[in-house]
Amino acid sequence: MKKLLISLSLLALPVSAQYTGLVTTRDGNQLYFSSSLRLRGTSEVDSPKIFRYSTGFELIQQPTASWQALVEPQVSADGTVAGYTNSSASSCIEWFCNGAPPPEFGVIIGVQIPHNPLPALHGRLRLARDGGSVMICRVDVGDLVDPHLIDLRTGQVTDLKGLNALGDGLQTVGDSTGGGPIVLLLDQTSSPLLYHKGATTRLHFSHAAILARMNSEATVIVYEAADPGGKYELIVHHVGTGAEQILQVGPPVPANLPNNTPSYFQPWLSDDGSSVLYLTVDASGHQQVFYEATNGSGERALTNLTSVPEGVSAATLSGDGTIAYAATPDGRILRISVPSGKMDELAGRTPQLIQLQNPAVGSVNWISGAALSATGTLPQVLVGDVPAPVISAEPTLVKFQIPWEVHPGQPSEIRLQYGPPPPFESVLTFTAAAINGNFLSPLANPFSGALLGLHHDFHSLVTSSDPALPGEIIHFYLTGLGPVTPSVATGERTPASAPLHRVVYPPVFCTVSNIGTTSTGFLNAPVPFVGLAPGYIGLYQMDLQVPQGLVNADSALSCAFRMLEGGGYQVAAVDLYVQVP
Fold first, then answer.
1. Average pLDDT rounded to a whole number, residues 251-257
2. Shared domain check, 515 and 384
3. Which DSSP string do the residues of 352-402 spell out, in sequence order?
4. Is the residue at 559 inside a domain?
5. Do 33 and 84 form a contact (C-beta atoms < 8 A)?
6. CB within 8 A of 2, min separation 6: which ones?
């Protein structure tokens, strides 16, 4: 029995910031973060892992299963206790969880917890600065799971029944005082309060908070408000007096936001509550890092368009307020002295490989991602150990050819590099195929745009306003149609002179749907030529004659291509616009 598969056009890794969850110690000498990148030259898994920087970068922990993601690292002020959240990256179908979110639980490093209760408590881990307690909480709106407070010295668990985390819950667990930590939470009416050993103290914020940061002694709170119809505001609240001051006003809050309103400022508070770091967008539309005292003085930019033209994706502040760390979309990690403004680059631009257009060997291909090239230079692309010809490159898109020498049916790793090698690398792992036929958009970016044919003279697209004529021979570009005869070497342009380089395995069939008021079924479409397009590297061309007798102006053209590794065939489809009576 033949296998019938609809072909997929993309192989993809999750699209995400290269470094997330930045957090540092009181003195700023240790930085923890999560990343799916690998330390260069290692065989680490491609899922999010926990790293630390002190005198150099080191892997702290990586997932033991492919569906796990280690995220949101935490570290105590003195750096002796650390932790993170082990979050499942799988779907509910894999976990049979019947609509519940995939399980996530906290992990602690550096202290032995008596009768460790963490694996049985599902939620995200939030560590107190003194390293004495953690809160396990869910931060999704509508999640009815109560937070839990755990004493790391005794293993005692306190169920914070009827309470919820405020925003993401970061920096909301204060140091232990009088036998337990003070925790900033929300009650069932979403009103803020402080919890301490079973007692609660209501707080009176002037606005509803979507996120908050509290100092270690629970005397200063900086929260972010996003009132519907208003603007984002960053507000300092003094617990003892209830006095408030607006530190920053951001842009208007977008209408129709989801329940979890995203943070605009992404603030971080010093341990004593005297200073706050936050992000805001500059005139060029990029996020930059700012620093300000919580009394409203000393506002200044720590990064700008000159020093960090790509902007900042994440940042954190040391507990003593003297060191800031920032990560950029281009994969840089920066260490900034707050008093002097001196900036050190700990990790340089790091290419991130996100999507591969087609896994077939010999075919022209595209990788999309971030920081894929530098101005005026072509990157080096390796498929396994085989150099791949690079045809063109932009920062977010590289056009190359998968070498014919790559073996189909075997896993291969793609790496990309230019300039001095950074400490991290992004690796895209795929299984090469002999044939993986896909129609290709004639537009510049293969990841977007309609899959259209070209008229017989190649000068215009076949569209609804300029349809093909019955009997006309039109042209399509494709990728992944496999070996040709005579062969063309890797990196060589297909000669424009005879003979034509035809595919060894032509389509099993090409048919056009013919469903209308007077006809049902499909018409075969003659294919006089399928092979490499003259003048190009690894690009395939198919010439197809539009059948006579079509009754629908917008029909579906379907072509079946063999699957040499798995047997059977896969079907690729494209719209065909035809002039009909």
1. 85
2. no
3. EEEEES--BTTSEEEEEEES---TT-PPEEEETTEEE-EEEEETTEEEEE-
4. yes
5. no
6. 568, 569
List the beta strands (DSSP E) in 25-144: 31-35, 38-39, 49-53, 57-61, 68-75, 82-88, 104-109, 124-127, 133-137
Q: Tell me 454's DSSP state.
A: B
* Number of other residues whose CB lies within 10 A of the CB of residue 375: 5
Residue 555 domain boundaries: 438-577
| One domain, residues 229 and 279 | yes
Are 225 and 337 found together in one domain? yes
The counts of H helices and E strands in the chain are: 1, 50
Phi-psi region of 350 (alpha: psi -120 to 50; beta: other; left: phi over 0): beta
Lowest mean pLDDT among 245-259, 349-363, 533-547: 245-259
Residue recorded with tokens 């530098």: 374
Query: How is residue 291 written in tokens?
Result: 């620093």
Number of domains in the chain: 4
The region of weakest confidence among 44-53, 341-350, 444-453 is 444-453
For residue 486, say if its preceding peptide bond is cis, omega within 30 degrees of 0. Answer: yes
Joined together, the tokens standing for residue 285 give 């539309």
Residue 396: name the closest of 457, 354, 433 by CA: 354
| Residue 442 vs residue 180, higher pLDDT | 180
Measured distance CA(204)–CA(198) in Å, rounded: 20
Query: Which domain-ending residue is among 151, 171, 203?
Result: 203
Say if residue 219 is in the same domain as residue 196: no
Average pLDDT over the chain reads: 90
CA distance 118 to 65: 19
* Angle value at C-alpha 102, between 97 and 106, nearest 5 degrees: 135
Question: Tokens at residue 192, please?
Answer: 């803020």
* pLDDT greater than 60 at residue 95: no
**Model confidence, pTM:** 0.87
**CATH number, domain at 422?**
2.60.40.10
Residue 94 has pLDDT above 60, yes or no: no
